[in-house]
Amino acid sequence: MAIGKVRVETDGGQGATKVNEDDIIGVVREYLEDKENSYALMLTGEWGCGKTYFVEHALTEKLEEDESRHPVVVASAYGAKDLAELCGAIESGFISKYAIGCAAGGERGRWDSLVGFAKDTGISFLGKKIRELEKKAGVDLKMAPLNAVNLIIGPETLLVIDDVERCDMGIRELLGAVDHLVVGCRKKVLLVCNEDEWRKGLGPKGEKGTTREYESLIEKTVWRKCRFRPSVGSVVERVLGGVLGGVSVNIIFTISTNAFSPIAPTRIRRIRQRGCAAFGA
Fold first, then answer.
1. Is 62 within 8 Å of 32 (Cβ atoms)?
2. Residues facing residue 191 across a β-bridge
3. Tens digit of pLDDT for each residue in 167-205?
4. What is the pLDDT of residues 199-217, one digit of tens each?
5. H/E/C letters for each residue in the chain?
6. Is 193 exposed, middle or buried (0-12, 13-18, 19+ CB in 10 A)?
7. Contact, 275 vs 239, CB < 8 A?
């Protein structure tokens, strides 16, 4: 099967396609450049397989170093109970990226304080600016949470919403918000989740929604699903980080062999704990 110019292998599961890291980067690039695409992307995979690490490192680095440069803002939906909390998480992700990124030298402490303040107050300075605009215009803009997100997430930005299956919102409210972002606000959104676990929380009378609702809403909201398949190199880097100097080929082979077994996520965590301890990390 082909996604644009990228060849992928169909995975029977939930309609996701098995892709390696380079292919995912290619799919995301094409998605970002297609201004007519008003859907979201989904990156799914088992817990602990490295999805978040890939997004925060390889994907972000590649997209932000391109000539067209697409900034990446990552937010976690973990525990968000409603739209306001989800948008608050997105605002916090935006603040963390840009405020911390601006810190330099002796100014570090001041910027860290700004980040903490902005997170605690829920980006209150944006609300203040809206109130100023309301007063000047003589109208009530009724600053809804999604409108705030629309203002801070630029048209070239990739908004990554991670831990989607751990969100406490109902699927209709959650996917309705995503649909508003990609259709109404023309934003580019990547949903990162363990779709298999997400679906387990649904049922005929599920609190978050039914399986039928999920399938209907996903079909209308998500353009492509990619099932994450990490590379050997990224697994080794994630497991041992910066302690690879002088590591023997046999150790790296053992790590990569275990990492790609059927119980990879559990073994990756175990190897990381033992491996880093062995190297004094």
1. no
2. 42, 161
3. 999 999 999 999 999 999 999 999 999 999 999 888 776
4. 988 877 667 899 999 999 9
5. CEECCEECEECCCCCCEEEEHHHHHHHHHHHHHCCCCCCEEEEECCCCCCHHHHHHHHHHHHHHHCCCCCCEEEEECCCCCCHHHHHHHHHHHHHHHHHHHHCCHHHHHHHHHHHHHHHHHCCHHHHHHHHHHHHHHCCCCCCCHHHHHHHHCCCCCEEEEECHHHCCCCHHHHHHHHHHHHHHCCCEEEEEECHHHHHHCCCCCCCCCCHHHHHHHHHHHEEEEEEEECCHHHHHHHHHCCCCCCCCHHHHHHHHHHHCCCCHHHHHHHHHHHHHHHCCC
6. buried
7. yes
Cβ–Cβ < 8 Å for 11, 18:
yes
DSSP 281: -
Residue 219 tokens read as 């079909």
User: Amino acid identity of 227?
Assistant: R
For residue 71, give the nearest of 34, 97, 50, 33 by alpha carbon. 97
Question: pLDDT at residue 155 above 50?
Answer: yes
Tokens for 25, please give them. Answer: 């980067």
Please spell the DSSP secondary structure of 98-120, one letter per residue: HHHHH--GGGHHHHHHHHHHHHH
What CA–CA distances, in Å, run from 64 to 70, 172, 245? 5, 32, 28
Q: Tell me, what amino acid is at 215?
A: E
Contacts of 124 (CB under 8 A, 6+ apart): 118
The answer to whether 228 and 52 are in contact (CB under 8 A) is no
What is the rounded distance in angstroms from the CA atom of residue 161 to the CA atom of residue 253? Answer: 33
**In whole angstroms, what separates CA 128 from the centre of its chain?**
28
- Whether the model clears a pTM of 0.85, i.e. scores above it, the answer is no
